[in-house]
Design brief:
Elements: H1 6-17, H2 19-46, E1 50-51, E2 59-63, H3 73-87, E3 92-93, E4 104-108, H4 114-144
Antiparallel strand pairs: 1-2, 2-4, 3-4
Helix pairs in contact: 2-4
């Protein structure tokens, strides 16, 4: 916690006063965010995870309701802990944003580079595949009973 140096303040003021730079920066940033959003949501769709439609932003809402053991916020917190501790991804449960329905998770895709994004998608794929296998085994056992 310290003051920003006057040299840094002057440098930032100069950058932000350059309309051409700001326009180019915003255009480039917007294109990168759109590409990252498309890559992330398409990757989620490949494993059956849907997201709320959006037209801008730094994050998306992914629908993990089918993974809940029951449709409660307690079950959402169990799933959240599993994702944090086993999958090693930092997602935010909808409960912390006052969502009215359990099972929605907020994921920020803007704060990672392309390589990190691919790693996150790979971890999600592995988690979903393992969850599906576990569900298949449980379903087979139920049929046997």
């Amino acid at each position: 916690f310290g003051l920003v140096s006057s040299q840094t303040q002057h440098f930032l003021a100069s950058m932000l006063s350059d309309d051409e730079f700001v326009d180019d920066f915003l255009k480039t940033s917007s294109m990168r965010l759109a590409k990252r959003h498309q890559t992330f949501t398409s990757g989620l769709e490949e494993v059956g995870i849907k997201c709320l439609n959006s037209n801008a932003g730094l994050f998306c809402w992914m629908d993990l309701r089918p993974l809940l053991k029951e449709p409660t916020f307690e079950a959402e917190m169990v799933l959240w802990r599993l994702i944090i501790h086993k999958v090693k991804l930092n997602v935010s449960p909808g409960f912390s944003f006052h969502c009215v329905e359990p099972g929605w998770f907020r994921v920020c895709f803007a704060n990672m580079d392309d390589e990190t994004l691919e790693i996150a998608l790979k971890r999600i794929r592995i988690f979903i595949q393992a969850t599906e296998k576990k569900s298949d085994v449980t379903a087979k056992k139920r049929k046997q009973w």
